[in-house]
User: Fold this.
Amino acid sequence: MDIIMIPGFWLDGASWAAVVPHLERAGHTCFPLTLPGMDSLDADRSEITLADHIDAVVAEIDAHPGGPVVLVGHSGGGLIAYGAVDARPDRVARVIYVDSGPAGEGAIINDEYPAVGGELPLPDWSMFEDEDLVDLDDALRAEFRRAAIPTPAHVAQDPLHLTDERRRDVPATVIACEFPSSQLRDWIAQGHPFVQELGQLRKVEYRDLPTGHWPQFTRPEDLATTILESVGQS
Assistant:
């Protein structure tokens, strides 16, 4: 299976480096994406939009005409993955949300981080919730910060536009890290807006991987195993 891997904020395709070998040893082919504007610190990303990032994923899907693909989206990359599913619902075998999930029409990824010159630098760790930082020790934090690239502000703040109801028929997996899947189910039952679109999916499974928000750094082998288990359901 071809697995297209979409990073979250401040990350490029190399952020999947500790996960990919486990997937490839299992016989899959991985395509970790570096999205537009995320290729270097010096890139001009001030005008790059959410649509640009979704279009980049769609272009990667179209580059694999031999069969359906699996999308893996981490954090904000989950909403980008969902936008691509909406554009190509017949070309995605499964979408896997790593500590993330889908969102509905008009949703934005996050408008709380301060923008500087049209981009969002990685903020101080004090900006994050304690749950985000579980298992992310000092060495991993230093490694993350050295590799971090500012995210285009438009990607974080542009509204998502959706057009195809078939997106809800594409099988999905939610890998729950910060909060257990039982809490996600409770939020759905309570009608929490954060999970409203998730509750509309027709084929969704939940898998728990307790750690912080960046399991590709804190538990990469376990994340790979969980992805493999999910791909096996496709």
